Structures are given as structure tokens and as C-alpha cells.
TrEMBL record:
The lineage of its organism: Bacteria, Pseudomonadati, Pseudomonadota, Betaproteobacteria, Burkholderiales. NCBIfam families: yihY_not_rbn. InterPro entries: UPF0761_bac, Virul_fac_BrkB, WH-like_DNA-bd_sf. Its main location: membrane. The keyword Transmembrane applies. The chain crosses the membrane at residues 49-72, 107-129, 150-170, 190-210, 222-242, 262-283. The keyword Chloroplast does not apply. Keywords: Cell inner membrane, Cell membrane, Membrane, Transmembrane, Transmembrane helix. Signal peptide: none annotated. It comes from Paenalcaligenes hominis. It is a multi-pass membrane protein. This is UPF0761 membrane protein PAEH1_02455. It is found in: Cell membrane. One of its GO terms (cellular component) is plasma membrane.
Amino acid sequence: MTTPEPSAQPTRKHTSHTAWLTQSVDTLLFIVTRILQRNITQVASSLTFTTILAIVPLLAVVLSLFTAFPLFDDFRAALQEFLSSTLMPAAVSSTVMENLNQFAAKASSLTAVGSLFLIVTSIMLMSTIDQTFNDIWYVTEKRPLMHRVLVYWAILSLGPILAGASIWASTVLAQDSLGHISTLSFLSSFALSYIPFILTALAFSALFAYVPNRRILWRDAFVGGVFTTFALEILKSGFAFYLKQFPTYTLIYGAFATVPIFLMWVYLSWLVVLVGASLVAILPNLRRRAWATSNHAGAPFLNALSVLELLWQQRNAVPSGLNLHQISLQLRRDPASLHELLKSLKKDGYVVNTIENEDERWVLSCDPAITPLAPLVDALLIDRAQADTPVAHSIVSLIDLTVANPDLTLESLFSEPKQLKKLSQYLEHHVFTRSNPLGVTTHAESQ
């Protein structure tokens, strides 16, 4: 009687679960690493300082527009209510909005020069946000100055009115529904209660989609908008709980506690927004499985060869070279890792970055006909100078004969892709043998 063999199904399930867990961890590590590379904590600090300086001028400009057109009074009230209830914790929202309105009202009595200063300060804040988002996407090509100024002014003048109108219309619709319909379905009640969340998510989605000077897929921007809005809601609840349970700022600062609390809230809010923007920038790389290729052994060396070959092909093009976005698209690689790789290649003298029409482009800085691969091998593959054992010296000798061969230049490698195959065949027939692949003379053979 034979014993039945155990089923392999549990083993397969265990293997698939392990692979899924490993893939999930690698993906998460890739996302966290890419977000940290963007140095968002320091950027959030800078944006917080700029926001504090510009928030009163910005609010003054917006309120002056609403004041100039009494027709929009309902829009202004709806916008203020939305900002205080949605974007700030309840503990500080009323005090902050009251003080900001007082400051903005006093600013309305300024002269023409003072009003111009308010407008310039507001535009500077939006310019800083614009530059920050472009840095997250590694965008080097700026929009024309007049184009930027017109867009900023359109946002300043039309943005608050459109936002207030949409919020007001949504509020009126909700109130009308609640007043005229005695019993609402669960789905209708749910939809009406989440109007602020939906509007905020759409606003952040538009911010991520249109601010960077780069084509952003709306599905990616929407994912980032929903994530940012959800994270801000969690942050607002957590921040309110902290202030209630640990009233440290109130005990220390007393009546002035609103100031440090508001500063901390602005900083944390910018931190969440920048994480959301970074997530949107990373999503295309996740679809290309960049997290799976960037960690492979030898990936920097192989990517460097691909970059150099691409720039070699573009050496006679007009305009010369390629920008980071073009390189990333053609090679289907993560812009962040390519940016670090290009800096390494520049340090070794292979490439150089140039500015052409406010666009940073990368071109070859070496003569491909005489430039060997040896420095690239030492920088990204193996430092041959570190060989200090017989085995290490043997490996280095093999590398010297192949990829680090002085006769193997960029020109010969890229123009004659079969040369490495010919070289390996030559080594196989003249240096190595099948029975003795390293060509080592043994003691028995020497007798």
C-alpha cells in the first residue's frame, strides 16, 4: 500500500503569499524612499514661512474682489465657512479666521503702492508653490514669465469666485433637499454629507494636474487628491484630539496659543499636500514596476549604459541632448534614480547639463571614440582597486579583458553592438577552455 504524496497546493499558496508580501514591502519601501528623496520636510518649512507672510495679502486681495462685487457676498460667506470648517481644526478655526478677516479689512485702506505690494506678495506665494511642484516632478523647463503671471492672476481673481460659487451652490442644493424632502435615502444623505470632501478632493486633483509643467494623467491626480483630502481629515481629527488632551500650547502661551498652533497646522498641512503630490509623481513609476528594476544588482551600471547610448544617438540632434523627462519616457525609468545617475555620470566626465530656452538638457561631454568604459565600471559596477586577494585579482583580470578593456570605447560599443560577442568568442577560443574556463595552469599541468 503506497502512501499518497502530500499535496503541493499549500506550498504553492505559501509561496504566492510570500511573493505578494515581498512585493508589497518592496513597493512600500520604493514609495517611502522616493518621497524622502524629495526632502519634503524642509520644503514644507519653507512653504509654511512663505504662507504666513502671504496669507493676509492673499486674503486681502480675495476679499477686495468680493467687496467690489456685492453680488458675490453669499459666495464669500460660503467660502469662509468652508475654509474654517474643512481645512482647519475647530479649536483654532474661528479665532484664526476672525483675525485674518480683521487684518485683511485693514489692508483695504492701503494706498495703490501698498495694494500692489499685496498682489506681488500673493503672486510670490503661488510662484513658490509652482516651483515646488515642478521640483517634485523634476521639471526643468519653466513656463514663460508672462504666461505664469497671467495664470497666477487668473487664479487670484477667478479661483475664489468659482470656488465660492460651487460651495454655495452645493450648500443651497443640500439645504433645499433637506427642506423639501422629508425622508432622504441613505445614499442621498451620504452624498450630501460628503460634498465638502468631494470638492476638496477635486481641488487638490486640479492642483496636482495643472500646476506642474508636465502632462499629468487625471486618474493619477485624482488618486493624489483623494489621498490628500483623506489624510487631511485624519490629521485634523488627530490634531484636535491632541490639543484637547494635551493643552501644552495653551498652558504656555495663554491667549497667544493660537499663533504656534496655527503655524504647526500650516506646516503639517503642507507636509500632507507634498506627500500627496509626491505620490502622484510616483504612480507612473509603479505602473512601470520601477520598484522591481531599480533594486537589481548592477542596475545603475546597465541604466548608465542605456543613458549614454541614448545621448550618443542624440549627439547630432537639434536641439542637442535630452531633458530628464524625455530620458525617463524613452528608457521607462524612474526620474529620481535617473537624476542621481546623471549627476554621477557628470562627476565622472561622461555628460554635462546645459540650459537651453530655460530647459535643462543633458548631452555627452566626452569624445565617444576615445572614452573607455573603465571609469564607469569602477564607479557603478566594481572598484577594481579594492582587489586584495588572489580570487579578487582573477576577477579583476577578467573585467580588464572585457568591459574595462581600454580598446572598448563608447563609440565602438554603441556603433558595433556585436563587438562584445566577438570579444567573448575570442576569449573562449584563445584564453579560456571548456575544461579550464579561467585559463589557470594547475600544478599537474606544470609538471
